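Forum: Protein Structure Q&A
Topic: Joint prediction for protein chains with partners

I've read a bunch of threads here and the consensus seems to be that you should model interacting components together rather than docking separate models afterwards. I'd like to see that in practice. Below is the full input, 294 residues plus whatever partners are listed. Could one of the regulars post the assembled result?
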Amino acid sequence: MITMNNIPEYSSPLIDQIYDGIPQTTFDFVANRMSLAARINDAIKAKNWTQKQFAVAMGKKPSEISRWLSGTHNFTTDTLWHIEQVLGIRLLADPSETPMYVFEAESLRKFVLQEVNNALEKYLSNKKVTMI
Amino acid sequence: MKFQLVKLSRFSGKKSSIYYIIIGDDKETLFDKFIRSNLSSNQKEIEQIFVTLDAMGKKVGSQDIYFRKKKEGKAGDGVEAMYDYPSAKLRLYCIRYGSVTLILGDGGEKFVRTWQEDPQLSQSAKEMIQISKKLTQAIREGDLSWNGNDFIGQFEFNDNDE
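Posted by a regular:
Agreed with the consensus. Here's the joint model:
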């Protein structure tokens, strides 16, 4: 009879060293690609389709669908839009529903304000001269 | 064949627990050996494997879509290879139990069409098939089980086990 113990943990300096050298952005980038693939796969399952049926609906070869779902594929916006139409899901944000933000550096903001002030002062001083 | 299962929490997370194999009295896992053998020649691919494993453990689970569907081993032997970029040279063999438990093995550079044609890959794949059989037997007999995503129970195996 085996005692149901937890499996022992293992630490590896080699694995730690490589892991710590990979930028967080790389982890996020790959996780996002894999999550997108999983969402598409979930939608295929929700329609009770096989990957082959999805391939037919998309006009693609099954091997291409396997690559799409592997999390290694770099989708174009057009392909994602086509997948949305075929599966009836949303993968892309609707630009009309998403506010557009202009991000401005603080230094640029100060510079613009200073220039506006300078122009205003110049305008007002010229006006005084004209009035005299 | 004598081997031991160990867990590395670095890649494991709420979606999947990731385990490693130590053969015999070795001091390091098969996965460490795989990295050591291929790091200098394929560092980018090793890093790609790391980030993929990390995402499986913490974000998406070890789902079947992230593994190659054919060519690697025979259907039902429990051994799969991670999906990779078309230009990738490395193959890493794994044993997968659903999307919640993944056991990493060994692999290597693949220049030939099937692992059977490459002596080193052939040895790695056959070793993993043997390990998979042992683990499946332990699960069937109730000696190895799950607590959530984690294995509990027997973690040391050898040929003398009944």
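The mean pLDDT of chain B is 87.
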